[in-house]
Amino acid sequence: MENSKLGDRFAIFAAKLGNQIHLRSLRDAFATVMPLYILAGLATLLNNTVFTWIFKGSTLTSVQYWGTLLSNATLNFSGVMIAAMIGYCLAKNRRFENPIAAAMVSIAALILMMPNTVFLIPDGAKKAVSISAVLPYTNLGTGAMFAGIIMGLVATEIFIRVSHMKRLQINLGDNIPPAVSNSFNVLIPVILVLSGLAIVSALLNNLAGMNLINLITTFIQEPLRHVGTSIWGVLLLYSLGNLLWLFGIHHSVIYSSILEPLLIINITQNIAAYSAGKAIPNIINVSQVASFGLIGGSGSTLCLLIATFLFSRNKVSRNVASLSVAPGIFNINEPVIFGYPIVYNISLIFPFIFVPALGVFVSWAATVAGWMNPCVTLVPWTTPVGISAFLATAGDWRAVVIQLLILVAGVLIYAPFVKINDKVAEKQAEEQLADQQ
User: Fold this and answer.
1) Distance from C-alpha of 225 to C-alpha of 417, rounded to nearest angstrom
2) What is the pLDDT of residues 192-206, one digit of tens each?
3) From 336's CA, which of 59, 226, 285, 348 has a CA 20 to 30 Å away?
4) What's the whole-number mean pLDDT along residues 250-266?
């Protein structure tokens, strides 16, 4: 009874955490911009692998310009985009009547916090020179993603609160077009919020010689990212997210809201480095976790399905596995989660948590040892096993071998628990039959 109460309390806490409005807005925003990150990864993959196999010399340079344009429009503008999407999603979740204005304010707030003078190295030069009135991609793209998150949240919250002050609203009457009316309603709040943030930015520059981008990156983004996306941090958070399925709570409560944004920052940095021909900075990233710790879906349940076909004698389990294998190939495993089931099933929770953690750890160790390349492109989470590892690592066949070895290991780990689950199901069926008699 006490364990049941503890589980219920944990489930309630996890559900509240997942519904926390800022985390939910963060999850919604990253889900919205995800297609652009996938496109950036595809462009980088084609530019640096496929095109180099086909074209040479000046022709290659001309063709690669296509990929460069796509990278600039997606990856190198990602900080601004995430600020806008967070502002919009947070305003929608707050039920604010003008979410487009919130997105606009978030973008302007982020630009306000950027330095007016930057140091850049001109083409052909060796030393950086000071340049004014420019916005380099380093401040608009991956380098500003965390700043975009913070400014999107902070600026939108302030803007919504100020906009709800009746005295600051300008009412032009009922005969005015809605777009004009909404614009004038937020005119004074926009002026006040952005002017106030400009004062903050000016004080940072004049008194401390700093700007918010560098401040957030140095003191918040990098420490949090290094801890949260270390191998042990990822294993802890990812395993805790999978544990939530035992209580019927989607793992996105922890994964999509807390861990995934940090992992996405890592893969965007990898994409940028790979595109520029530089050393890859991050082994742990969203493609690595998804490709090697999400084989068949949460809990790497493709391993469970294969183990069921090989070792289970329970008719119900085998029927569920037969129905689940097609979507499972594309990492969609709700039929397994609720049909096998995983929810409230103690018999399978250990491999459900351990197998994904093993996949993440083994792929990390293999990359550290040089047995496979790091993941440098963002592949859709529905990409089947084998193909996902190949694409994520820009065509490294060794990553496919590692992924298949993890798959086999996962099947062997699930096997004894499948047999235990059969015995539990058989015992439950006997008890139900006895109760009916």
Assistant:
1) 35
2) 999 999 999 999 888
3) 285
4) 80
Residue 102 near residue 75, CB atoms below 8 Å: no
Which of 250, 212, 261, 334 is CA-nearest to residue 25? 261
Residue 47 to residues 73, 277, 283, 302, 337: CA-CA distances in angstroms? Answer: 15, 11, 21, 33, 39
* pLDDT tens per residue, range 403-430: 999 999 999 999 999 999 988 888 877 7
For residue 343, which of 420, 232, 219, 246 has the smallest C-alpha distance? 246
> Are the beta carbons of 144 and 81 closer than 8 angstroms?
no
Q: What is the pLDDT of residue 310?
A: 94
Q: State the pLDDT at residue 358.
A: 97
Number of H helices, E strands in the chain: 21, 2
Confidence check: pLDDT of 5 > 80: no
pLDDT digits (tens, 9 = 90+) for 40-66: 888 888 888 888 888 988 898 899 999
Residue at token pair 């000071």: 130
Is 119 strand, coil or helix?
Answer: strand
Q: CA-CA distances (angstroms) from residue 430 to 100, 312, 416? A: 59, 18, 21
Among 47, 45, 79, residue whose Cα is nearest residue 265: 79
Q: Provide the residue ranges of all domains of the chain, joining segments of one domain with +.
A: 74-228, 252-436
CB 320 within 8 A of CB 336: yes
Question: Is 379:35 a contact under the CB 8 Å cutoff?
Answer: no
Question: Contact 277/266 with Cβ under 8 angstroms?
Answer: no
Give dist(CA 48, CA 374) in Å, integer: 15
CA atoms of 87 and 80, how far apart (whole Å)? 11
Tell me: pLDDT of 7 over 60: no
Q: Which residue has the tokens 């193909």?
A: 387
DSSP code of residue 114:
S
Considering only CA atoms, which of 236, 187, 247 is closest in space to residue 7? 247
* CA torsion through residues 8, 12, 14, 15, sign: positive
- pLDDT number for residue 280: 94
